[in-house]
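User: I'm putting together a teaching handout on how multi-component assemblies are represented. Below are the sequence lines for each component of a complex, exactly as they appear in our records. Could you produce the 3D structure of the whole assembly as structure tokens, so the students can see both representations side by side? Please keep the chain order the same as the input.
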Amino acid sequence: MGMKKFINDRSRLTQELLEGFAAAHSDLVSVSPQRLVTRKVPKSPDKVALVTLGGAGHEPALSGFVGEGMLDISVVGDIFAAPGPPPVFAALRQAQRPAGALFVVLNHAGDVLSADMAMQMAEAEGLKVRKILTHEDIAAGPDAPVTDRRGLVGCIPLYKIAGAAAEAGRSLEEVHALAERFNNRMATLAVAMKAATHPATGATLFELADDQMEIGMGQHGEAGTGPCKIRSADETAALMMERLVNAIQAKAGDRLMVILNGAGATTLMELYIVFRGVKKYLDGLGIEIVASRVGELLTVQEMAGFQMFAAQMDDELLELWKAPCNTPSLVVR
Amino acid sequence: MGMKKFINDRSRLTQELLEGFAAAHSDLVSVSPQRLVTRKVPKSPDKVALVTLGGAGHEPALSGFVGEGMLDISVVGDIFAAPGPPPVFAALRQAQRPAGALFVVLNHAGDVLSADMAMQMAEAEGLKVRKILTHEDIAAGPDAPVTDRRGLVGCIPLYKIAGAAAEAGRSLEEVHALAERFNNRMATLAVAMKAATHPATGATLFELADDQMEIGMGQHGEAGTGPCKIRSADETAALMMERLVNAIQAKAGDRLMVILNGAGATTLMELYIVFRGVKKYLDGLGIEIVASRVGELLTVQEMAGFQMFAAQMDDELLELWKAPCNTPSLVVR
Amino acid sequence: MSKTIQPGDFIRMLRGAAAKIRANHDRLSKLDSAIGDGDHGIAMLRAMEAVERAIEEYSCAGPKEVLAKAGWAVMSAAGGSTGPLLGSFLMGLGAGLGEAVELDSPALAAVVQRGIGQMHSHSKAQAGDKTMMDALLPAAAALAGATAEMAPAELLTRAAEAAARGAESTKDMPAKFGRARHLGPRALGHADPGATSMALLLAGFAEGLAR
Amino acid sequence: MSKTIQPGDFIRMLRGAAAKIRANHDRLSKLDSAIGDGDHGIAMLRAMEAVERAIEEYSCAGPKEVLAKAGWAVMSAAGGSTGPLLGSFLMGLGAGLGEAVELDSPALAAVVQRGIGQMHSHSKAQAGDKTMMDALLPAAAALAGATAEMAPAELLTRAAEAAARGAESTKDMPAKFGRARHLGPRALGHADPGATSMALLLAGFAEGLAR
Ligand SMILES: Nc1ncnc2c1ncn2[C@@H]1O[C@H](COP(=O)(O)OP(=O)(O)O)[C@@H](O)[C@H]1O
Ligand SMILES: Nc1ncnc2c1ncn2[C@@H]1O[C@H](COP(=O)(O)OP(=O)(O)O)[C@@H](O)[C@H]1O
Ligand SMILES: [Mg+2]
Ligand SMILES: [Mg+2]
Ligand SMILES: [Mg+2]
Ligand SMILES: [Mg+2]
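Assistant: Of course. Below is the structure of the complete assembly, with chains in the same order as your input.
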């Protein structure tokens, strides 16, 4: 089966991706042999550092958000696979500083495993680190146990908000508290339309009939609520936003951040059309969109579909979201 | 044939896209009933305005680049179709100001037709406008007649450079001269791997066998140099960059801007791997990359492939490229 | 058959063209799918809808005004190459019609030639380039044979037939303009959609007048 | 058959495991394709390469050091869940081996149980969750039957057989952990890849020792 991708050696994908990434953004980031992506101009040690980890193949996430105002270190694993505990521990060590470090972990089995082991090692060494776990997927229901709630695109605005707080010189306790506040007020629901190919194995991640889509599918093809007939953009928008609104208990007068995160092959045109539907739906409920983002932040190769994200905002979170940042994939003036 | 896209009404695509776009970026842009996308905070009239036109379906191009430091007005046509002369003329009129306007046109038959008629009307009214035609595609050979050289992604860095010069208060003659200097030093070559669907007609734009790619294909499936076997990322990078280097007569010691513009379904991972190949190739020739961009600027729906862009840079062009801007799809601090 | 027409007859000609295009738009899109992007039928349909709206709105202001407004509306409405080209053709007709109160065949020929000329000046295409001009230039030549004895409907029929032969002849042409240009010799064997629609338009004019 | 082994025999056990995994990695990936992301065979292969490199580099420092370094290397090398879990198993073996100079079957059982225990503490999975633990927990139970009269190779064979039965039994389990978890009942009928590879690993230990 001829996989249609521009690659060289399937076993060197992550390596070559990171080389290209470092070359393209040499003014902003460096990449170490252990696959730690770090800021070119390090943050002052009296400010809290932000560290995260995750598999490759979701570009621009996660490393595209390393830079001023967001992440200090992103530890990169193989395609769709968490990095092992040793490089994660190395990152926590490297981030060590009087102000301490916030360690953002997305809820995926491998990531959590590595992160927990690295945290144990960090604690054994007396490093100043606080962990935060994102798990905002509501596919299994908003009250499902944490193990059933994946960390999806929500990590990106969380990096932004925590990063801005860190940049503003807030203490580790404050940065952690802000991040947790946001973490507790956010929710994501995904929808898939066309499968992606695993670029290393060449395998198709899942199958969906020509007239079907699946709501709640995870970012590696993990099953959602089962396939259903393709709906119109407006119907899909209302269907999904209704579940998000319930999950974060939004009501008239509330102010939301909304993100439509393209999975890879879904066009920006479609995303804007869906956003229009979301706006219409929320307008109908008297809920205001005070912050938004439409585009590809965390992708799944050439999968078609998107993740719809919503979070309850307040003045402080909003101010942090709008604060300047300068990373390869997100710049705010 | 079930087209797998999140849309509502095929005949209202552009309308709904623009509504979503305006809603998502309400702090930056407005959209008029005539489909003129304009800056929310207008540029002072003693600075040159930038106007452009083009069909929808290439998001984020072209309207994603309306804003401080780039475009003042983008006139939007239907999917893949130029807007007619009346709205284009309306845009030129609206952009009218003592400093005058630069009118950037991409070389596609329909665009040129509309632009020329609108220019005639503008001249008949005595408006202060200068037109510039981008035609940097080298698929037909760098010395092919201008009619055979399409305007591809090169318009975007050109907006950026001319926009920065305008923002800096340069005169229309100076802005035009700078834009022409850049225009004459740039070249683009495209490669396609998988076809896209026309979202209004549902038609597949072209066919490519499972093991084939086509270099030189245009952004609506216009034929290139014919299909060939898929090459590795490195081979493709060298093959294409060699032709670009020849076209812009780059030699050891020269400084280039390089853009890899994803067509839609080609992953950022692949683009970074190709960028790595480009860097390696140029390193071998002693040519330096002083400015770069990897991502989706001008897409063709969910087509897989990319446009490779190169331009000869000098200090002044580089400074303009790096100047601040604030648009929905490109922000520079 | 009458040897002259009134300016108001142009409205009937336009309606005839609209009916003709509506009946054939699918075929036009199919032709465009073969060598272009498949939207020419839609573009022509939109153009004709704009023409009909202009008739609705401006017929009390007279046919000259209708043609001018229809041209402008077509330019705004139809996507791609069709809008500007067909719009300039209609505006040319309006300009050619001027203040005429009655037209014999040579006068009608002059009006239609003015429309064709206006399109040609924007088109930049020459005979043999596989464009609308390959239908319209032969039609213009046929119109040149007009005499005062000829019935206008007869004249338009001759022009339409010349246009149809011209459109047919585009099958043997590699494309030099528009999207098909990039196909090179691959465009051979396919009639040009734009040339075909211009032949239909003129046939519609003739039928509208004859009705 | 000898009733005791030397610490150095752990190197032979590791080599046996590497050979066993290498011979079966395709099958492991296929199992993972059915209910996971298809990379488990590769992950195990990478892990075994890391183990062999650790043997190469650290065998002069002694088997305890080899196990500790191999565990660390496996954690760094193998992607996904496998690296940390298998790495902690190997590090547990190293810690369990301690300063022993000769091991009878109960001593060997204690070492392997320590490895299993270390993995279990990180795994958070219980019996029946369709994970590696479903092979390793029955193996640990089998190891508990060790007596000083039993040959170590025989003990490992029994443990491996218990693990294989455990792996087989995962076919009837819906998944509770890892990627397969999201499949719910769709995972039924498929053996868990990780449980299968743990059974192979123990079988490799036994074969390495017997060789
Ligand atoms: N410069 C030109 N002069 C005359 N006709 C042209 C020219 N360019 C294109 N055409 C005509 O336009 C037709 C295609 O029209 P249409 O499909 O509506 O536009 P587009 O090519 O923008 O999709 C072609 O078949 C050709 O006859
Ligand atoms: N918490 C856990 N405890 C024990 N085994 C686990 C756990 N999570 C996953 N596994 C095992 O890991 C196997 C999959 O490994 P692998 O494919 O290498 O990792 P990934 O799921 O990250 O792709 C599963 O078959 C399962 O046996
Ligand atoms: Mg067309
Ligand atoms: Mg078109
Ligand atoms: Mg797996
Ligand atoms: Mg995996």
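A couple of points students might notice: The CA atoms of residues 19 and 88 of chain D lie 20 Å apart. Residues B 80-81; C 37, 39, 79-80 surround magnesium ion (ligand 4) (CB under 6 Å).
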